[in-house]
Amino acid sequence: MKYFKGALLCASAIALSGAMTAHAQQDDSERKLSTVTVTGSLIQGTPEDAALPVDVLTADDLRLQGSPSALDMIKSLPVSSGVLGDTNQFDGRAQGSEGSGTVNLRGLGASRTLVLLDGKRLAPNPFAFAGNGSVDTNILPLAAIGRIEVLKDGAAATYGSDAVAGVVNFITRNDFEGFELSGDYKYVDGSDGDYKIAAVGGWNVGTANFLLAAGYQHRSELAATERDWAVRDYLDNPQGGWSLVGNPGAFLPVAFVGGVPTPVQGVTRDPACGNFAGTPLFSGATPVCGFQFTPYDNITEEEKRYQVFGKANFELTEKHNLSLQAFYSSTEVPKIAFSPSFPPVGGASSPTADASLVPGQFFVPATNPGFQTLIAQNPGLVSPAAQGAFMIATRPLGYGGNALAGGRGSERSMREYEHYRVSAELKGELTESINYTASLTTGSQTGRRTNEDTVVNRYALALRGLGGFGCDVAANTPGQNGCLWFNPFSNALPQNMVTGATNPNYNSAAGNSLDVLDFILEDSFTEQEIKLTVIEAVLDGQLPITLGNGNIGWAFGGQYREEEFDRQYNDIANLNVTPCIATVTTGTTTCAQPVGALGFLAGSRPLNASQDVVALFGELSLPFTENFNAQLAARYEDYGGDIGSTFDPKLSLRWQIAEPLALRASVGTTFRGPALTQVATGSVTSLQNVGGTFRAVDIAGNPGLKPESALTYNVGGILRTGNFRMTLDYWNFDFDDSVVTEPVASMVSAMFPNGATGANNCGNPTFAGLEARFTFTGACALGNVSRLSTQYTNGPNIKTSGIDLSADYTFEDVVRAGLDVEVGFSGSHVLEYDVGEVSVEGIVVGQPFSAVGFLNFQTIATPLPETKFEAYINGSTDNINARLTARYIGEYQDQRAVLFDVPNTATGTSVPTPQGRTIDSFVSYDATVVWSLPYETTVSFSVENILDTDPPFARLELNYDPFTGDAIGRTFKIGFTKRFGAGS
To answer: Exposed, middle or buried, 439 (CB in 10 Å: 0-12/13-18/19+)?
Structure first.
């Protein structure tokens, strides 16, 4: 990489030397400096068809497509894949950020795409996966957006960190005058539909212009049970939301021999399993009752969004202008649906003050009314010698639902996001040949979330009849004097909340009260905030040096960025307050493993951190001839401390070979500095699949991280002749020191190569460091993993390349005068995406692999189909526009061979389950008609996914890939726009 930088600098010096010796003169009056700055350049007046590959979507373009949401627009981009925005709570890369969205150019990760609003940075999403610094695209004020520019090339030399894969710049309307009101409603089968409304006003007062826009968007809840493909039987998809820990569940009857609990029979499955609820699995020595949690989940959650945007432009003098902006956005996801309760990972503690508890286990005494009812209803099921039972594979709430939540019994949590940004920019002319721009931008995004979980020791007490906030545990009066029982058996369940089937063995006297549920369940609350302040100054103009087609354009500037991060928890989730399982019952704060008091969600510690970045940057525009020009940019950025600094140049060329044909190329280095939370001490916790069961995975900061860097180049061409236009580009990215989280699946596979049985690497001295990353509830074994520690690291080399192609042609006056028909195509094909070797604690946990055309489950890559394109035909007359769009996503493979090659024996017989290895290609068709009516009124009607095509099947919890697929099905949308006065 450093040799390339040197070569590029030499080439740049030669180019500049040629410029210095050129003597062709040009009258300054022949070259008027425009005030427009195109994404990818700092020099005002740079044309949109310059050397860089920039796609432009205007507000009218989006209107003719039915005014899609930000999520729908981003997912439809052929150059974007692995997008967040749909419900995807089961993937660690999306957990906890429900309600937010991303854009992911080239599939390189959302953190490597820089999202701007009017060319300026936005505060990152504080709940983005592992604090990676990506921007929440759902906050953007769509009503105020006039166009969107997508730069599909590395641009760190111009914009700094994060612009590795490219830039998406949302640009607000300018010179708008009048008032505009718009809205639409989308009918979605099985939900209350989606709708939005927006208002925009603009007016001129003297030499000042003002714009004010407000919008509201509502997305309705769509339950997984509303789509028959989303909930499947166990053998159709064993990964389709199935857990071995349910309710009804399984238990181990015991008696106390010399004070030691001793089994009196084997693991026993609740007899209700397979009758009104549950699927019997692993009959024999370890029978369990399979619980499917996805019927309690949603395909889309209810979301409410509000945005208010205002800006004012003042012409202070003929040569100086002031622009002020203010922006506020709020997203509410009031009731995310989860499983009725999560499965407790570990057992209770047994401190002296709670001598009734059995260490490390959830114990039910024979005096529990539910246990007594179970024995009475099922003679011979339990040995008469039993004095109680350990709950082996049982969660507090399952098929009977969560009565505290109501409805279908899903546990309800919330997500909230608030974003604000204010900006001031002063720009003008210092001299006739030098312009200046100085700006201050500050903003923040705050995220809040809750999740309900089981308080371990309270649950254990309630199983012993000592539950309830009014119970005196020391008095030891089970079920009396304010003490409450919790019944973990099926006879406490009135019905199956999913199917509605009633439980013939329900005993209301042994049922669970709302008070005992309120005692054992508590909300974990997290609030995180990222503040971003950017101060920037740029000079640009023309040098008194001319080339064959004019003066050399130049820009030079500096930037200062300050980022602050704050993370807080409520007491039950704060390890500084509640470090131990026993803290809630005894007050103790000393324990061997400070993992908190909750059964499934791990606690964490508050964190406050900040980071300063200083940058210097410059750019030259070299118009060598009328047909050949070059752009040279370079940026120095200093993060200070151990992270250090980076210098990155870039050279772009454009050659107009002939009037219809131009070639363009760019080459440069680009970089991304580690996000603030990635280098700060402390950790965040996600829930990821470990050996078939979700477990807590800590992701720790790494102060030793270095910026990742990449060599990028792009070669392409533009063909324009008559009404035909085509662009073709080849792109290539070659990464070093990629900043990633250590891959969970690879670490688990390396530690336990033979799964739950057989010889693994427990106790192997070579693997001691890797083994220390795992926390076990007993001996080292895959089934005993309760927690896994990972960290951010400078990981493997990544190399990816591909081809973009777009073309369109307009047929004028078809059939009759005034009817124009346009056909177009835009697509991207990934040629390679190679990921290098991954090591953790000196152990190679991941061999090099190709990510293109694969699902990439729990790897550092997102799902990446090889090919993605859209084609359209658009017909327009003076007052009607009709558009038909076809979208295609190519097939890709699930590389988890063990799922498909090893027969499934969970139901007692060996059953091959090869389905889902190939995730099929997907084709959908959308149609939109827009009518322009009198009085500046337009109405539109859209049908999306006309053929109501289901998303391709994937071996994931919701039976499709939410990063890629469309789960909604056919929808119908009607919209309107009414303008009052002149609009633009």
So the answer is: buried
Q: What is the pLDDT of residue 982?
A: 61
Residue 43 clears pLDDT 90, i.e. is over it: no
Q: Which DSSP symbol is given to 156? A: H
What CA–CA distance (Å, rounded) separates 866 from 918? 13
Per-residue pLDDT tens digits for 887-921: 999 999 999 988 898 888 888 888 889 999 999 99
Q: State the number of CA atoms in the 13 A half-sphere of 510 facing the CB.
A: 23
The C-alpha atoms of residue 512 and residue 247 are separated, in whole angstroms, by: 13
Residue 94 has pLDDT above 80, yes or no: no
Arithmetic mean of pLDDT over the chain:
89
Amino acid present at 136: D
pLDDT of 351 over the 50 cut: no
Q: What is the pLDDT of residue 352?
A: 33
Cα 857 to Cα 239: distance, rounded to the nearest angstrom: 12
- Asked if 885 and 822 count as a contact pair (C-beta separation under 8 A), the reply is no
pLDDT (0 to 100) of residue 80: 87
CA dihedral 171, 173, 175, 180 (to 10 degrees): 180
Residues 938 and 932: their CA atoms lie apart, in Å, by 4
Summarize pLDDT for 840-865 with one digit per residue, the tens: 999 999 889 999 999 998 888 889 99
Structure token digits, residue 52: 């860089």
Q: Are 685 and 698 in contact (CB under 8 A)?
A: yes
Alpha-carbon distance of 813 to 820, in angstroms, equals 5
Identify the structural domains of the chain with CATH numbers, from first to last.
54-220+300-338+606-980 (2.40.170), 232-299+340-402+452-512 (no CATH)
**146-150, 418-422, 850-854: lowest mean pLDDT where?**
146-150
Q: What are phi and psi of 29, to 5 degrees?
A: -65, -20
d(CA 788, CA 687): 10
Radius of gyration for the chain, computed over Cα atoms and rounded to the nearest angstrom = 31
Cα 532 → chain centroid:
20
Per the CB < 8 A criterion, the answer to whether 488 and 396 are in contact is yes
Q: Is the pLDDT of residue 4 over 60?
A: no
Dihedral over Cα of 732, 736, 739, 741: its sign: positive
Tell me which of 36-45, 165-174, 843-852 is least confident: 36-45
Name beta bridge partners: 823.
809, 873
Q: Which helix (H) or strand (E) holds 371?
A: helix 369-377
Burial class (CB in 10 A: 0-12, 13-18, 19+), 932: middle
Calpha distance 264→381 (Å, rounded):
12
* pTM score: 0.89
Max Cα-Cα span within the chain: 106
Question: What local confidence, expressed as pLDDT, does residue 442 receive?
Answer: 98
pLDDT at 694: 77
The continuous run of DSSP H or E covering 443 comes out as strand 434-454
**Are 825 and 869 a contacting pair, CB within 8 Å?**
yes
- What does the pLDDT read at residue 47? 56
* Structural tokens at position 948: 């109501």
**What is the spatial distance between Cα 414 and Cα 111, in angstroms, rounded to a whole number?**
24
Place of tokens 């012409």: 315
pLDDT at 931: 96
| DSSP string across 381-401 | SS-TT--EEEESSB-SSSTT-
More confident residue, 162 or 520: 520
Contact 860, 743 (CB under 8 A): yes
* Angstrom distances, CA of residue 192 to CA of 25, 70, 219, 945: 67, 20, 8, 18
By DSSP bridging, strand 166-172 and strand 260-263 are unpaired
The strand pair at 166-172 and 113-117 is best described as parallel
For the residues of 883-933, what is the DSSP string, one character each? EEEEEEE--EE---HHHHHS-B-TTSS-B---TTSEE--EEEEEEEEEEEE
Question: Residue 613: enclosing H or E segment and its boundaries?
Answer: strand 607-622
**Stretch 772-783: mean pLDDT:** 86
